[in-house]
Amino acid sequence: MLPAIVIFFREGLEASLIVSIIIAYLHKIGHTRETRQVWLGVGLAAGLDLAVGLLLYHVIRQYDGSRMQTILEGTTYLIATIMLTGMSFWMKSQGRTMKASMERQIQLALGKGTLFALVGLSFLSVGREGLETVFFTLAFAFHSNPLDLGIGAVIGLGLALAVDWTIFGMGRRVPLTVFFNVLGGLLLVFGAALLADGIEDFQSLGWLPLLTHALWNTGGVLNENSLLGDILHNFIGYAAKPTGLQFGAYVLYLIIGFWRYFRPTSLRSKNRTQIDAASSKI
Fold first, then answer.
1. Which of 35, 199, 254, 266 is the most buried (most CB within 10 A)?
2. Distance between CA 276 and CA 12 in Å, rounded?
3. pLDDT per position as a tens digit, 9-30
4. Which residues cross the membrane (predicted)?
5. CA separation, residue 157 to residues 5, 106, 160, 221, 262 (Å)
6. Domain ranges in the chain?
7. CA dist., res. 258 & res. 256, Å (int)
8. In this structure, are residues 282 and 28 in contact, taking their beta carbons and an 8 Å threshold?
9. C-alpha 169: how far from chain center
10. Are 211 and 194 in contact (CB under 8 A)?
Protein backbone atom coordinates (compact mmCIF):
# COMPACT_ATOMS: atom_id res chain seq x y z
CA MET A 1 0.00 0.00 0.00
CA LEU A 2 2.77 2.44 0.90
CA PRO A 3 4.42 2.42 -2.56
CA ALA A 4 0.99 3.04 -4.12
CA ILE A 5 0.39 5.99 -1.77
CA VAL A 6 3.72 7.59 -2.64
CA ILE A 7 3.43 6.99 -6.39
CA PHE A 8 -0.16 8.22 -6.66
CA PHE A 9 0.63 11.20 -4.44
CA ARG A 10 3.67 12.12 -6.54
CA GLU A 11 1.99 11.68 -9.92
CA GLY A 12 -1.38 13.02 -8.73
CA LEU A 13 0.23 16.15 -7.35
CA GLU A 14 2.08 16.85 -10.57
CA ALA A 15 -1.04 16.26 -12.68
CA SER A 16 -3.24 18.40 -10.42
CA LEU A 17 -0.66 21.20 -10.44
CA ILE A 18 -0.61 21.14 -14.24
CA VAL A 19 -4.41 21.36 -14.40
CA SER A 20 -4.47 24.14 -11.80
CA ILE A 21 -1.83 26.11 -13.70
CA ILE A 22 -3.88 25.84 -16.90
CA ILE A 23 -7.15 26.85 -15.25
CA ALA A 24 -5.58 29.67 -13.21
CA TYR A 25 -3.92 31.09 -16.31
CA LEU A 26 -7.17 30.93 -18.28
CA HIS A 27 -8.90 32.87 -15.50
CA LYS A 28 -6.04 35.34 -15.42
CA ILE A 29 -6.34 36.19 -19.13
CA GLY A 30 -10.15 36.20 -19.13
CA HIS A 31 -10.86 32.89 -20.87
CA THR A 32 -12.94 31.27 -18.15
CA ARG A 33 -15.32 29.61 -20.62
CA GLU A 34 -12.50 27.51 -22.01
CA THR A 35 -12.05 25.73 -18.66
CA ARG A 36 -14.76 23.32 -19.79
CA GLN A 37 -12.42 22.11 -22.51
CA VAL A 38 -9.72 21.54 -19.93
CA TRP A 39 -11.99 19.40 -17.75
CA LEU A 40 -13.12 17.45 -20.82
CA GLY A 41 -9.51 16.62 -21.61
CA VAL A 42 -8.86 15.63 -17.99
CA GLY A 43 -11.90 13.34 -17.96
CA LEU A 44 -10.91 11.65 -21.22
CA ALA A 45 -7.35 11.14 -19.99
CA ALA A 46 -8.48 9.67 -16.67
CA GLY A 47 -10.87 7.30 -18.43
CA LEU A 48 -8.20 6.14 -20.87
CA ASP A 49 -5.60 5.63 -18.14
CA LEU A 50 -8.04 3.60 -16.05
CA ALA A 51 -9.01 1.44 -19.03
CA VAL A 52 -5.38 0.81 -20.00
CA GLY A 53 -4.46 -0.05 -16.42
CA LEU A 54 -7.29 -2.53 -15.99
CA LEU A 55 -6.60 -4.11 -19.38
CA LEU A 56 -2.88 -4.57 -18.72
CA TYR A 57 -3.52 -5.91 -15.23
CA HIS A 58 -6.06 -8.42 -16.58
CA VAL A 59 -3.76 -9.55 -19.41
CA ILE A 60 -0.75 -10.03 -17.14
CA ARG A 61 -2.79 -11.94 -14.56
CA GLN A 62 -3.66 -14.48 -17.26
CA TYR A 63 -0.07 -15.72 -17.08
CA ASP A 64 -0.08 -16.12 -13.30
CA GLY A 65 2.46 -18.74 -12.21
CA SER A 66 3.94 -19.27 -15.67
CA ARG A 67 7.38 -18.56 -17.13
CA MET A 68 5.82 -15.81 -19.21
CA GLN A 69 4.71 -14.04 -16.04
CA THR A 70 8.29 -14.06 -14.79
CA ILE A 71 9.47 -12.59 -18.09
CA LEU A 72 6.77 -9.91 -18.00
CA GLU A 73 7.49 -9.16 -14.34
CA GLY A 74 11.22 -8.81 -14.84
CA THR A 75 10.80 -6.64 -17.92
CA THR A 76 8.25 -4.44 -16.19
CA TYR A 77 10.49 -4.04 -13.15
CA LEU A 78 13.47 -2.90 -15.19
CA ILE A 79 11.47 -0.54 -17.41
CA ALA A 80 9.77 0.94 -14.35
CA THR A 81 13.19 1.45 -12.75
CA ILE A 82 14.37 3.41 -15.78
CA MET A 83 11.17 5.47 -15.88
CA LEU A 84 11.18 6.21 -12.15
CA THR A 85 14.80 7.31 -12.28
CA GLY A 86 14.38 9.43 -15.39
CA MET A 87 11.18 11.04 -14.11
CA SER A 88 12.75 12.03 -10.80
CA PHE A 89 15.83 13.62 -12.35
CA TRP A 90 13.88 15.29 -15.16
CA MET A 91 11.49 16.94 -12.72
CA LYS A 92 14.38 18.16 -10.57
CA SER A 93 16.34 19.63 -13.48
CA GLN A 94 13.58 20.83 -15.82
CA GLY A 95 10.62 21.43 -13.53
CA ARG A 96 11.39 25.11 -12.92
CA THR A 97 10.45 25.95 -16.52
CA MET A 98 7.22 23.95 -16.59
CA LYS A 99 4.88 26.79 -15.58
CA ALA A 100 6.19 29.13 -18.28
CA SER A 101 6.12 26.29 -20.80
CA MET A 102 2.50 25.45 -19.96
CA GLU A 103 1.46 29.09 -20.38
CA ARG A 104 3.10 29.21 -23.82
CA GLN A 105 1.27 26.05 -24.81
CA ILE A 106 -2.02 27.54 -23.61
CA GLN A 107 -1.47 30.63 -25.75
CA LEU A 108 -0.72 28.45 -28.76
CA ALA A 109 -3.84 26.37 -28.12
CA LEU A 110 -6.01 29.48 -27.80
CA GLY A 111 -4.48 30.87 -30.97
CA LYS A 112 -5.66 27.84 -32.92
CA GLY A 113 -9.23 28.68 -31.96
CA THR A 114 -10.45 25.07 -32.02
CA LEU A 115 -12.25 23.03 -29.39
CA PHE A 116 -9.69 20.26 -29.54
CA ALA A 117 -6.63 22.43 -28.86
CA LEU A 118 -7.16 22.89 -25.10
CA VAL A 119 -8.78 19.47 -24.82
CA GLY A 120 -5.69 17.96 -26.39
CA LEU A 121 -3.33 19.95 -24.17
CA SER A 122 -4.98 18.86 -20.93
CA PHE A 123 -5.51 15.32 -22.25
CA LEU A 124 -1.85 14.84 -23.13
CA SER A 125 -0.57 16.50 -19.94
CA VAL A 126 -2.74 14.49 -17.57
CA GLY A 127 -2.72 11.35 -19.69
CA ARG A 128 1.07 11.16 -19.61
CA GLU A 129 1.12 11.31 -15.82
CA GLY A 130 -1.64 8.71 -15.64
CA LEU A 131 0.11 6.25 -17.93
CA GLU A 132 3.29 6.61 -15.90
CA THR A 133 1.28 5.85 -12.77
CA VAL A 134 -0.30 2.80 -14.42
CA PHE A 135 3.08 1.39 -15.38
CA PHE A 136 4.66 2.04 -11.99
CA THR A 137 1.68 0.49 -10.21
CA LEU A 138 1.84 -2.62 -12.39
CA ALA A 139 5.40 -3.17 -11.20
CA PHE A 140 4.09 -3.48 -7.64
CA ALA A 141 0.80 -5.15 -8.54
CA PHE A 142 2.32 -8.58 -9.19
CA HIS A 143 2.81 -9.25 -5.48
CA SER A 144 0.26 -6.89 -3.93
CA ASN A 145 -3.35 -7.21 -2.88
CA PRO A 146 -5.60 -5.31 -5.35
CA LEU A 147 -7.55 -3.87 -2.41
CA ASP A 148 -4.36 -2.52 -0.85
CA LEU A 149 -3.37 -0.95 -4.16
CA GLY A 150 -6.81 0.63 -4.50
CA ILE A 151 -6.75 2.04 -0.97
CA GLY A 152 -3.22 3.34 -1.49
CA ALA A 153 -4.26 5.01 -4.74
CA VAL A 154 -7.23 6.74 -3.10
CA ILE A 155 -5.12 7.96 -0.18
CA GLY A 156 -2.33 9.18 -2.47
CA LEU A 157 -4.69 11.03 -4.81
CA GLY A 158 -6.57 12.50 -1.85
CA LEU A 159 -3.35 13.88 -0.38
CA ALA A 160 -2.34 15.29 -3.77
CA LEU A 161 -5.67 17.08 -4.21
CA ALA A 162 -5.48 18.41 -0.66
CA VAL A 163 -2.06 19.94 -1.28
CA ASP A 164 -3.18 21.34 -4.63
CA TRP A 165 -6.25 22.93 -3.03
CA THR A 166 -4.08 24.42 -0.29
CA ILE A 167 -1.98 26.13 -2.95
CA PHE A 168 -4.51 27.24 -5.54
CA GLY A 169 -7.75 27.21 -3.59
CA MET A 170 -6.56 28.87 -0.39
CA GLY A 171 -3.66 30.83 -1.82
CA ARG A 172 -1.18 29.34 0.63
CA ARG A 173 2.50 28.91 -0.08
CA VAL A 174 3.53 25.30 0.46
CA PRO A 175 7.17 24.09 0.33
CA LEU A 176 6.59 21.75 -2.58
CA THR A 177 10.27 21.73 -3.41
CA VAL A 178 10.83 19.88 -0.14
CA PHE A 179 7.90 17.55 -0.88
CA PHE A 180 9.20 16.65 -4.32
CA ASN A 181 12.77 16.21 -3.12
CA VAL A 182 11.61 13.78 -0.42
CA LEU A 183 9.30 11.97 -2.84
CA GLY A 184 12.08 11.84 -5.42
CA GLY A 185 14.31 10.16 -2.84
CA LEU A 186 11.59 7.64 -2.01
CA LEU A 187 11.08 6.90 -5.70
CA LEU A 188 14.79 6.20 -6.03
CA VAL A 189 14.47 3.66 -3.20
CA PHE A 190 11.52 2.10 -5.05
CA GLY A 191 13.63 2.09 -8.21
CA ALA A 192 16.41 0.21 -6.42
CA ALA A 193 13.87 -2.30 -5.10
CA LEU A 194 12.41 -2.83 -8.57
CA LEU A 195 15.88 -3.24 -10.05
CA ALA A 196 16.67 -5.97 -7.51
CA ASP A 197 13.33 -7.67 -8.24
CA GLY A 198 14.01 -7.58 -11.98
CA ILE A 199 17.45 -9.11 -11.48
CA GLU A 200 15.93 -11.83 -9.28
CA ASP A 201 13.42 -12.72 -12.01
CA PHE A 202 16.03 -12.82 -14.77
CA GLN A 203 18.39 -14.89 -12.62
CA SER A 204 15.59 -17.38 -11.98
CA LEU A 205 15.18 -17.63 -15.77
CA GLY A 206 18.90 -18.28 -16.17
CA TRP A 207 19.41 -15.06 -18.13
CA LEU A 208 21.85 -13.51 -15.63
CA PRO A 209 24.11 -16.36 -14.46
CA LEU A 210 26.35 -14.00 -12.49
CA LEU A 211 26.85 -13.83 -8.71
CA THR A 212 23.84 -16.08 -8.15
CA HIS A 213 24.91 -17.32 -4.71
CA ALA A 214 22.78 -16.01 -1.82
CA LEU A 215 24.80 -13.76 0.48
CA TRP A 216 22.69 -14.58 3.56
CA ASN A 217 19.32 -15.95 4.62
CA THR A 218 17.22 -13.96 7.09
CA GLY A 219 14.04 -15.89 6.30
CA GLY A 220 14.00 -17.40 9.77
CA VAL A 221 13.98 -13.94 11.34
CA LEU A 222 11.81 -12.07 8.84
CA ASN A 223 10.03 -13.99 6.10
CA GLU A 224 9.28 -12.08 2.90
CA ASN A 225 5.75 -13.51 2.91
CA SER A 226 4.97 -12.10 6.36
CA LEU A 227 3.11 -8.80 6.67
CA LEU A 228 6.20 -6.85 7.73
CA GLY A 229 8.40 -8.66 5.23
CA ASP A 230 5.99 -7.87 2.40
CA ILE A 231 5.84 -4.20 3.38
CA LEU A 232 9.62 -3.91 3.56
CA HIS A 233 10.00 -5.81 0.28
CA ASN A 234 7.66 -3.45 -1.57
CA PHE A 235 9.00 -0.34 0.11
CA ILE A 236 12.78 -0.78 0.33
CA GLY A 237 13.36 -4.01 -1.58
CA TYR A 238 13.96 -6.30 1.40
CA ALA A 239 15.00 -9.80 0.33
CA ALA A 240 15.58 -12.69 2.72
CA LYS A 241 18.10 -14.35 0.38
CA PRO A 242 19.59 -11.71 -1.92
CA THR A 243 22.15 -12.82 -4.47
CA GLY A 244 25.43 -11.02 -4.90
CA LEU A 245 24.22 -9.38 -8.12
CA GLN A 246 20.96 -8.23 -6.53
CA PHE A 247 22.67 -6.71 -3.52
CA GLY A 248 25.48 -5.14 -5.53
CA ALA A 249 23.11 -3.56 -8.06
CA TYR A 250 20.81 -2.31 -5.27
CA VAL A 251 23.60 -0.63 -3.30
CA LEU A 252 25.34 0.81 -6.38
CA TYR A 253 22.06 2.22 -7.71
CA LEU A 254 21.30 3.96 -4.41
CA ILE A 255 24.81 5.36 -3.99
CA ILE A 256 24.89 6.83 -7.50
CA GLY A 257 21.23 7.86 -7.44
CA PHE A 258 21.34 9.65 -4.08
CA TRP A 259 24.64 11.33 -4.89
CA ARG A 260 23.34 12.66 -8.21
CA TYR A 261 19.94 13.61 -6.86
CA PHE A 262 20.89 15.30 -3.59
CA ARG A 263 24.23 16.81 -4.50
CA PRO A 264 24.33 20.55 -3.65
CA THR A 265 23.13 23.05 -6.23
CA SER A 266 23.42 26.80 -6.31
CA LEU A 267 21.01 28.83 -4.22
CA ARG A 268 19.79 30.58 -7.33
CA SER A 269 18.94 27.30 -8.98
CA LYS A 270 17.02 26.14 -5.93
CA ASN A 271 14.99 29.33 -5.72
CA ARG A 272 13.97 29.18 -9.36
CA THR A 273 12.39 25.75 -9.36
CA GLN A 274 9.04 25.25 -11.01
CA ILE A 275 7.53 23.98 -7.81
CA ASP A 276 8.17 27.26 -6.06
CA ALA A 277 6.70 29.08 -9.04
CA ALA A 278 3.58 26.91 -8.89
CA SER A 279 3.32 27.64 -5.18
CA SER A 280 2.91 31.34 -5.68
CA LYS A 281 -0.44 32.99 -6.31
CA ILE A 282 -1.49 33.10 -9.93
1. 199
2. 17
3. 878 887 888 888 888 888 888 8
4. 6-26, 38-59, 71-90, 110-127, 147-167, 174-196, 244-262
5. 8, 25, 5, 35, 26
6. 2-279
7. 6
8. yes
9. 24
10. no
